[in-house]
Amino acid sequence: MKSHQGNEFPKANRKKVIAMKKSEQENIITVSHLNKEFVKDGTSFQVLKDIDLSVKKGEFVTIVGHSGCGKSTLLKIICGLVSYQDGGVSRNGHAVSGPDAQCGMVFQDHRLLPWLKIKDNIGFGIRNMTKAEREEHIARHLELVGLKGFENAYPSQLSGGMSQRVAIARGLAGNPSILLLDEPFGALDALTRIQMQKEILRIQREEKVTMVMVTHDIDEAIYLGERIVIMSARPGEIQEIITTDKYSRMNRGSSGFAAYKKKIYEHFFQDSAEFLQEAEYMI
Ligand SMILES: Nc1ncnc2c1ncn2[C@@H]1O[C@H](COP(=O)(O)OP(=O)(O)OP(=O)(O)O)[C@@H](O)[C@H]1O
């Protein structure tokens, strides 16, 4: 494998991805034969191995896998925040060469700037707008995430769920065609989390944004994922991609939902049937 550390992106891959893209017009994200190594204490170790993943425009894809299998790294590579060794990554038909406004990202911790009001956190990256346009744009995004009236509040005055709403608004404020979400609801209580899952689907529908979400919550992965990507332990490889149907996915009590759950558990626990039985008994 060719070694490639730092923030440069392999030139050969750019051409390869652009050529490949012409035959796959409908894919807004294309990851092909991606490998990623990190170096720790002078020794390199492989984090991602031969990742092939295409995401269609408007799709909602979820990713599940063991801790440390490289899920966040994969999102950061797609976003252009982290470089890679081999393979190709393209967004909107262009090889990724760094972060840009076409791709927003939301992290588990909201990363709001505590000294800025909510409206200024959302508007932080907005350029090329008049003051009036900017204010209108921010107001629209606050309304989108259900926080109308909170423009002058500070992050410390918001709950965890509200802060994540602001982070989502900020991620969408640059009008990206892709929003990558890295465990965005991981720190929320169960009820707020379910509420946020509904909200993110509504937002995706209204904004027509393609979304890829990493989650540790298998129910969440099923409920949101039109396709669920299951990754192996490090080095992370794609083990299976499950395509879900809307009815089963969105009905948590349905037999279809339970079948998806069983299938996913089987990847992570050898005795999944026993595990599920035990879980039921304990309830
Ligand atoms: N910048 C870095 N330098 C060195 N090693 C890194 C770096 N970023 C991540 N790693 C390592 O790469 C591996 C994958 O990390 P990553 O955060 O992508 O995993 P993950 O699947 O998202 O984990 P989790 O589910 O626990 O968040 C881990 O072993 C991590 O320590």
From TrEMBL:
**GO terms for MF:** ATP binding; ATP hydrolysis activity
Domain ABC transporter as annotated: residue spans = 29-258
Keyword vocabulary terms for this entry: ATP-binding, Nucleotide-binding, Transport
Q: Does the keyword Protein biosynthesis apply?
A: no
What the entry lists under Pfam families is as follows: ABC_tran
Its recorded name reads ABC transporter, ATP-binding protein
What does the record give as the organism's lineage?
A: Bacteria, Bacillati, Bacillota, Clostridia, Eubacteriales
